[in-house]
């Protein structure tokens, strides 16, 4: 037993129990973009605690006490709290029984590595504490905290992995921490190169030490096999745990470690000097990623990811994440490679626990060439079998999830969790780099390099730095998991911007408590970092330069405000170069260009509209050439339509694209006098330059009360409360108002009283009604059905009640692609005004190829449940909600004044997370602040495709979260 580790429990409780970093000595930053010299940062898993290291040596504003700081935000300002006073209560290796007040070893020191201990057990119960390695002592690990304004620092000197005489390491190259242990990758004492003999993984304990109880020991009461000894902080012996009486040493991990080798390889050619380490709280194990290259053995190879299990009694165990004998020469798994000088380079590791209760390992890097490694992010399923040697290893890529339920007399059959149990045991079962379920973002980023990764909910965030002269790839992106009918990931949405800021980023931190996004943008000129925090902007009362203000002003003359905001992503048919939003209201439309892509190279994000004038088109007609990203239409046929609530862009696939709008009194299409739209290949043009003089909105057909127009080119679908019409744009003659329509659904076909929403993708159509969800029937095709009977409309199993809204989620961000490729998902809002209740359900939509028929597996409810054998909703909003949207982390919903409750907008996020089996999510809702009245009406909420930022529109105008 290492007695020098022991320390009195009472003293530790005095210093750390109930710790919260105080705000004494904080410096208020007046602006959210105030810059300061950050060199490192780390955040808690919820994003609520953020710590940064500063290069105080280069700063004239911040002294040495700001070497480690905590970032805090308050309305209108930010706080940066110094945590490194010149003197502290310090203890090194617990060599004394009491702390000594002395110079702070962290004061003014550059931080080399930093991590956090969260939800700490024992002496650090329920708290978050930074763990650091600083430049002046690269062989020591420090943990710090405060109590009643008094700062304390515990330090431990780490030894290497020498087999007989471990000595002080030459330096620490990486850190990670659990709620009990601190892990460090250490160099040998006699060599500055990690990977040489003596390198390894060291671990420290920070908590209550327990040992095996002697047979005659009667002092243990809580556990008959264990006894608490003392509160400790210091290194344990990694190969043997606390059982070892000699000097503690690290677990060997070097070029000759057999676990990293494949086939006949005897030794790796090299290990890089950066080690990626990530502790998974859910899996209760450590993942270690390596930069490793094999030797010249033709039938050998290397693996790049190790799994480490830790305990006080038994030390650390190191195993490869996949069985070495299943790798083959042609294997393209991100974790291992075969052949002479094969390379696996792991830059970063993270874990993701999805809303369907499954665990995945998120990997930046892989086996691709060096130029692409920092552009590749992969997601790989993990085996969840606690206590099994397979736990934490790679699951087979086709492994079916297993549901776990309670089996007690009082609580039998209640959902607990879900996991994969089948380990990858053959080469074909290894997750491959090309698998849609593995390729986060739908593939590699095209330009730049990924500097940081963050995960939250079902989303992976990346920050991108681009050295290209345009800097067109820089910023924050996100990709969202798409689930199959069993709850496993089947694909990912393409990388999409999460903010309109295009500066170089060193990190993005989603805050699960508030729903805000904190990001650190770097100024390349002076190496300073801007601390920025997203927040809601009300278009009527805040920031006259914002888009929200401009849009709110345009519709301010109507008491209805903005009735719709219809977002068209880049590469929507008819938009090969731009993304736009069509805002609709009373007899009025405003088109806004949000991005421009030139030759798939330079990307321009429009977010400063103050330098443009709104191009006004009166009488619904373009009278002069347009050269502005803001175009409004009013008068003419739009006056006949009245309240305009829906818009779509449809093409005939070969020549023309049209903007179609619909409202209370019918449908109008923007076209020339001879019925032509803009050219499909050229698109709508930068600043709407391809909308030609003379084009105007023309009323088409004789429709009334059109609830929605949906385009799946070349087909246009019109939904009213009682009918669904299909129009083939290849056969219409707009000049003669010749619209060949086909009625493919009527509300009386199965005693359905009314239609409420519609999604169409290829053969598949889904109708939301007041009595549940309908889909196109088996072997039917909505594109060629000649009447409602041909569609064989079928109720989707386990859906009932009034479904007010459908939200399709596709890989491309285009709603009509939800049943293409690997398929997508649909969120459905089920709401009842009479009972004042509402909830959201999720459906998985399969990718349906042209040679495949629609069948029972084409669309299914995800396995969200609370009880065995009973599918249920994902989230109950606990009151009536008329609108909702989700970005994979946050769930926003709201209601208007026409129900007996006050208008509000609520954002659900944070703790408890929105997840299968979680009953009390509604308690985590945050009301969106804004200048709203109880008589306001909410018409639409969602995210802007080009920017990834939340918005809501209604009688109050527009609000946006940026």
What is this structure, in a nutshell?
The chain is mostly beta strands and about 950 residues long.
Q: Helical amount among residues, as a percent range?
A: under 10%
How many strand units? 74
Tell me the Rg in angstroms: 30 Å
Strand content: 35-45%
Shape: globular
| Cα end-to-end separation | 55 Å
What's the structural blueprint in terms of helices and strands?
Blueprint: E1 6-7, H1 9-16, E2 27-29, E3 35-36, E4 38-43, E5 50-54, E6 68-74, E7 77-82, E8 87-92, E9 100-103, E10 111-117, E11 129-134, E12 140-147, E13 150-157, E14 172-177, E15 181-186, E16 200-212, E17 226-236, E18 251-252, E19 261-263, E20 270-271, E21 276-280, E22 285-289, E23 291-293, E24 300-303, E25 305-311, E26 315-320, E27 336-338, E28 343-353, E29 359-366, H2 370-373, E30 377-381, E31 401-407, E32 412-420, E33 449-456, E34 459-465, E35 475-483, E36 489-492, E37 496-497, E38 504-510, E39 517-523, E40 528-533, E41 536-538, H3 547-554, E42 562-568, E43 578-585, E44 588-598, E45 602-605, E46 615-617, E47 630-634, H4 637-641, E48 644-651, E49 656-663, E50 666-671, E51 678-679, E52 696-700, E53 706-712, E54 715-720, E55 723-728, E56 741-746, E57 755-761, E58 764-769, E59 772-775, H5 788-791, E60 794-795, E61 803-809, E62 823-832, E63 837-846, E64 859-861, E65 865-867, E66 870-871, E67 875-876, E68 883-886, E69 891-895, E70 904-908, E71 925-927, E72 938-943, E73 950-954, E74 957-961
Parallel strand pairs: 8-13, 46-47
Antiparallel strand pairs: 1-17, 2-7, 3-40, 4-5, 5-6, 6-7, 8-9, 10-11, 11-12, 12-13, 14-15, 15-16, 16-17, 16-18, 19-24, 20-23, 21-22, 22-25, 23-28, 24-27, 25-26, 28-29, 29-30, 31-32, 33-34, 34-35, 35-36, 35-37, 38-39, 39-40, 41-74, 42-43, 43-44, 44-45, 44-47, 48-49, 49-50, 49-51, 50-52, 53-54, ...
